Structure prediction request, 267 residues.
Amino acid sequence: MSRNSLGASQMAFDFDALFAPQPTVPQAVKDAVKDAVFSFREPVKARSDDAEPKPWAERLEPVEDTSPRILEIDGIRAICTPDRWMCFYAIDPGKPFISETGFMSGCSSRKGSSEETFAALLAERRKQHKGKLPLPATTYRLPEPGEDGPQAATGALLALKKLKTEPYNAALLIEANGQWGDGACSEHGKPERLKDCTKGFLPPNFDVEVDAKGHGFAIIGPNGRRWPEAGSYFPALHNIRCAVTRQARDDAETNAPFFYATIPQAA
Prediction:
């Protein structure tokens, strides 16, 4: 069945509306997403004039036992879920992996067993990084009974989960947000600009303190509370500043006690 001859169940899903907010998405990507979604319902048959292989559509049945398991290729260990998406998760903290995030899916580019897929991804990433693989920001463990897939064991993802219950834990916030891609703020190394720009992201009545070199910042709430505590600074990284100022804006909407309740005076 071609994309221009969709069945009734397929036509019920409005893909044009799905992609409307992202008008620059290439048509080839849209077609690949459609094929991947529809392959859950029935095989996607390539058009006679379409010679491009579609391994994600052809992997309609598991190629092996889909239980998560550990495999090792050339000294690199991973948890693999050998299902249609063929996902790999880093295990060893501080040791190289095929992805800086600690996770990668191999389904959309190839077919084969988990060992074959992992070996191919490993070779490609080594070539891309000129032999030096990145360190994973998050590592995982095998799931316990009742858990849905591999679980974060260390690193950024686990810290993000903990932040839901400890939103003002500066060390967790740095660990969770400091390892992801955007790097230093554009005002890094420029103390006055770093202070002014960071203050611009904050609600009224907040102030900003920066270190002498413009490498770090702290915010001071309307109640005088400094975050982080005196003597410490958040590093001037884009992701961390976004997380810190977002928390302040969220608190301002509800007058949350961390920044708004009166701080008891020391005796």
